[in-house]
Amino acid sequence: DVKVTQSSRYLVKRTGEKVFLECVQDMDHENMFWYRQDPGLGLRLIYFSYDVKMKEKGDIPEGYSVSREKKERFSLILESASTNQTSMYLCASALAGALEQYFGPGTRLTVT
Amino acid sequence: SQKIEQNSEALNIQEGKTATLTCNYTNYSPAYLQWYRQDPGRGPVFLLLIRENEKEKRKERLKVTFDTTLKQSLFHITASQPADSATYLCAPAYSGAGSYQLTFGKGTKLSVIP
């Protein structure tokens, strides 16, 4: 069974803080993705990576950066958290060229 | 830009009936389309995939159709059960840099009433 884990289920941070969200997958998948999910807006792609040290912007990369130093780990970084980044953050992984994505349980981030 | 519409935000049906969810897309031609199930507070779970050259795909009580002319996919759950209550997401896919990328619809929340 593919397992995608995220470092926290719930996180509360203050405006201006630097925030790290970690995602780890145990199935040697090449591709990893970060989404955010908001009511009425659905799932939106922030960044993705198809190899170690590679990254590509998704639909809403502003205010975020990512890091992929190891194949199994993909980190999402909020350099200076703002209240409009309060959301559910979901990480996913997939085999290269594969069609289905495996999601983690999500991190509900609140920025106050 | 790509646009995806799922027919309704919420759908209520009686147990035992067939639920039909609709997904319409515009401004692109996806190579394939996926359906995911999402339960409250959890990540989406993959259910079915259908390719552009397939008309229909089945898995147990689930059936998906894909009409590239109408730019529409239908997702059916036959003999629905209360355990099928969840939000269902449509995700057409296109080929991007080094990977297939999914664009998700906002989802339809299905409630199966006993």
Give an overview of the whole structure.
Chain A is built from no helices and 11 strands. By secondary structure, chain B is an all-beta fold. Chain B is built from no helices and 11 strands. In chain B, a hairpin with a 2-residue loop joins strand 6 and strand 7. Chain B starts with a strand and ends with a strand. The model of chain B has no long low-confidence stretch (mean pLDDT about 90). Chains A and B meet through strand 5, strand 9 and strand 10 of A and strand 5, strand 9 and strand 10 of B.
Topology:
The complex is a heterodimer of chains A (112) and B (114).
Chain A lengths: L3 E3 L3 E4 L5 E7 L5 E8 L3 E8 L6 E2 L6 E7 L2 E6 L8 E8 L7 E2 L3 E5 L1
Parallel strand pairs in A: 2-11
Antiparallel strand pairs in A: 1-3, 3-8, 4-5, 4-9, 5-6, 7-8, 9-10, 9-11
Chain B lengths: L2 E4 L3 E5 L4 E8 L5 E7 L6 E7 L4 E4 L2 E6 L4 E6 L8 E11 L2 E4 L5 E6 L1
Parallel strand pairs in B: 2-11
Antiparallel strand pairs in B: 1-3, 3-8, 4-5, 4-9, 6-7, 7-8, 9-10, 9-11
